[in-house]
């Protein structure tokens, strides 16, 4: 990490030549990705292609075998100092919400505030109420335990915690998984509202084609241990077999409201 103030322009995230190996298995073999500030980018790929590992790498939790990552102008160091230097500047919503079951929603939201330190308890209470309202939960949700919440409410509570310290970037790992279509589309709207209101940059791993079509500016596809990135239109024109079948399958056509490709195999 550099000690200098991070530049406010330039990309939110730069991934250059990232190689990730577990034992003898290579997951990423030279990933490059640039995420612009204020962009909503979807990350897709087959199961086990390393989408979650990519998020963990960007936020400094997973050290790659090679490559460089810059997050909000800070070079990620993977020795713990990254997370410290970037404290509060990014938030993460883990796949299952990852709320602490023994803590209320309000207390969960206050976890990052306590880690940050120096925030008086009364202000933390006030801030957690604000975050609860920001994500569209009723005020009484603050005093509830995760077990008392629906799946959709848990996701919103997890998002409120990710937003606890007013981050510039949020990472969402399958935020709409397990939600019914209405809950999922409400969540999509919430992400769009938050981007509009807070200027957030959003990196979202998702299998939800409706979310991709509705809210993502660009999509990063993990294939062949690398990333192919483009707009929906650009990727729709790709000849790569996995990308082609992903963006032209019947479910994709329903989500993207497109007729079948002329000559496409069904
Ligand atoms: N800490 C680890 N040690 C060893 N292998 C790991 C570790 N973390 C992830 N892997 C492996 O790396 C691969 C990619 O994992 P990852 O969770 O990123 O996949 P994914 O693309 O998010 O998959 P899914 O869509 O199924 O959630 C998997 O084969 C996984 O088993």
From TrEMBL:
Output the SUPFAM superfamilies linked to this UniProt entry: P-loop containing nucleoside triphosphate hydrolases
Q: Keyword Transport: yes or no?
A: yes
* Gene3D superfamilies (alphabetical): P-loop containing nucleotide triphosphate hydrolases
What domain of life?
A: Bacteria
| PROSITE patterns, per the entry | ABC_TRANSPORTER_1, ABC_TRANSPORTER_2
Keyword Nucleotide-binding tagged: yes
Protein name in UniProt: Phospholipid/cholesterol/gamma-HCH transport system ATP-binding protein
Taxonomic placement: Bacteria, Pseudomonadati, Pseudomonadota, Alphaproteobacteria, Rhodospirillales
């Amino acid at each position: 990490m550099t000690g200098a103030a991070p530049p406010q322009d330039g990309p939110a995230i730069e991934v250059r030549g990232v190689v990730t190996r577990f034992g003898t298995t290579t997951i990423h073999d030279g990933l490059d990705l640039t995420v612009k500030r204020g962009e909503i980018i979807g990350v897709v790929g087959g199961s086990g292609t390393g989408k979650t590992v990519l998020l963990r790498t960007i936020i400094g939790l997973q050290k790659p075998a090679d490559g460089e990552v810059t997050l909000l102008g800070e070079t990620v160091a993977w020795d713990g100092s990254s997370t410290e230097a970037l404290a509060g500047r990014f938030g993460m919503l883990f796949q299952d919400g990852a709320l602490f079951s023994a803590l209320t929603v309000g207390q969960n939201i206050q976890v990052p505030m306590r880690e940050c330190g120096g925030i008086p308890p009364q202000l933390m209470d006030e801030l957690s109420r604000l975050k609860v309202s920001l994500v569209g939960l009723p005020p009484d949700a603050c005093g509830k335990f995760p077990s008392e919440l629906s799946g959709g409410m848990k996701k919103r509570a997890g998002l409120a915690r990710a937003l606890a310290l007013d981050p510039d970037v949020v990472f969402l790992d399958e935020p709409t998984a397990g939600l019914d279509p209405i809950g999922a589309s409400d969540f999509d709207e919430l992400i769009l509202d938050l981007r509009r209101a807070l200027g957030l940059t959003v990196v979202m791993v998702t299998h939800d084609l409706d979310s991709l079509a509705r809210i993502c500016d660009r999509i990063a596809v993990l294939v062949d241990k690398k990333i192919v990135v483009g707009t929906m239109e650009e990727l729709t024109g790709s000849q790569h077999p996995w990308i082609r079948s992903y963006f032209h399958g019947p479910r994709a056509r329903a989500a993207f409201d497109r007729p079948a490709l002329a000559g496409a195999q069904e």
